[in-house]
Specification:
With 276 residues, the protein is mostly helical. The chain has helices at residues 2-9, 21-38, 45-58, 71-81, 84-93, 97-116, 123-133, 146-156, 162-170, 177-183, 189-193, 197-224, 229-271.
């Protein structure tokens, strides 16, 4: 445990590297959006300010780190020991969670704009953005989802030039955070859900191995009707290994869903350079 904590203390900085291509690209896109929104003279200042707050969360993007870094040590120790301080440490080191929470914040602020300023000229654009943002939201309680945002745009603003873009975007496939988590009940299935077939096959195999290690000694002891301490130790190791496999699998699947969605969005932007 001490070695694991020491390794976690040497984990990479939470700061975004200067050469992060995703962050540079998102910053450039936010600057273009800023210029376009400020150019809308008919949009009142409070509307613009709230929209740009939401836009900044929507476009808060940096290259996702894989679990191969030293934070994996904290995740494994937390899953193995179920020690609360280690759970807290592992959660604090998971920088990628900021990306997921950013989408929740963006959805909250776009919806706040629609609620407070329903007649704002920025309302159609907020709905268009929500059609993308809701794909990555994992927080319950929002009034609608990706399909609902597109439907609201089409019904409330049928003459908006954004409607064709929204309908085209609605055809782009996506993966949900809840889907990735649900499939990860079977470690590896979440990776297959987001298109990472090789990773999914490996994780399924590892989970099957740990399951066999957990169950086989118990079955043997039941058949022989005799307690075997070696079997108990092996079974315990199998349970711990399965727990670690599950924890790392569902976290990786959530990142995979995010990467899948953002890759499809980048493809859409390249295919439709005039889209907002």
């Amino acid at each position: 445990m001490a070695a694991g904590l020491l390794a976690c203390g040497c984990a990479p900085s939470v700061l975004i590297p200067r050469r992060d291509a995703d962050f540079t690209r998102s910053t450039s896109r936010l600057a273009r959006s800023d210029a376009a929104v400020l150019g809308l003279a008919q949009a009142p200042t409070p509307d613009r300010a709230l929209f740009l707050q939401a836009e900044s969360f929507d476009l808060y993007r940096f290259t996702l780190r894989r679990s191969a870094d030293l934070t994996l040590a904290a995740q494994i120790l937390a899953a193995t020991t179920d020690f609360s301080p280690l759970n807290y440490l592992a959660a604090g080191l998971e920088v990628d969670d900021l990306r997921l929470q950013a989408y929740n914040a963006a959805a909250q602020l776009y919806e706040a704009l629609l609620e407070r300023y329903p007649d704002s000229p920025l309302a159609p654009l907020a709905l268009y953005r929500l059609g993308w943002v809701y794909r990555n939201v994992d927080l319950p309680g929002f009034p609608t989802g990706a399909e609902g945002a597109v439907r609201r745009l089409r019904e409330c603003y049928p003459d908006s030039p954004l409607v064709p873009w929204a309908l085209a975007a609605a055809k782009v496939p996506y993966r949900t955070q809840s889907g990735a988590t649900a499939w990860s009940i079977l470690p590896g299935a979440g990776q297959i859900y987001v298109g990472q077939w090789a990773s999914g096959a490996v994780r399924l195999s590892v989970a099957a191995g740990f399951s066999a290690l957990a169950l086989a000694p118990i079955g043997s002891m039941l058949v022989r009707r005799r307690l075997d301490w070696v079997g108990v130790i092996l079974s315990t190791l199998g349970v711990v290994g399965l727990q670690v496999t599950y924890t790392t699998a569902y976290q990786d699947a959530e990142r995979g869903a995010l990467e899948f969605n953002e890759a499809r969005e980048r493809d859409f932007d390249r295919a439709h350079p005039d889209a907002p």
